[in-house]
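Please, does this match?
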Amino acid sequence: MTTALIVSEILQWIVLIGFGIAGLALARQVGVLHVRVAPAGALDAGKGPAVGDAAPHLHVTSLDGTAMTIGGTLPAASLRLLMFVSAQCPLCKSLIPVAKSFAKAERVDLVFVGDDDPAAQHAMIARYDMAAYPFINGADVGLAFEVDKLPHAVLLDATGKVLAKGLVNSREHLESLIVSHEMGVPHVQDYIAGLQSAGKAHAA
């Protein structure tokens, strides 16, 4: 009887150790899979002010007639998101509610920027309930940041420095701007590439 109990105890410990090893192996594979399928994040076309550079200092007027400054020190908000959109861009319009929700959650000062017929912009503002956000309509800001594809986003800090930027088409892409800033890398792609390089070096 005693021998049977000892054998049973040993078998239980072997099973527990086996589960522990299997759990560690599974956790490692999940980590590898996460890196492989990680989102690309906002795509930077490599044009305009680079991440870490001071943003162009521009004096502009919003559609409602309010004088604004792009670049330089922000009076209150710690971060400002310039969201370049167009009434002619279906993807831009679908991303407007996402940008509003993102800005509220992250406590980011959201400014919409476009270059179109004022009547079309006013119609878009009314349709998508954008009246609470500044809307700059004109070519100056887009030219200064060399924006040639939409929707495009630029994240600025309180001093007017470019923290992150790129083409965006989902909330995930907008969040990648914050993530790359918090990680201290220009883009999420750089972080992912670093992880992949480290993994290859470790495997070698």
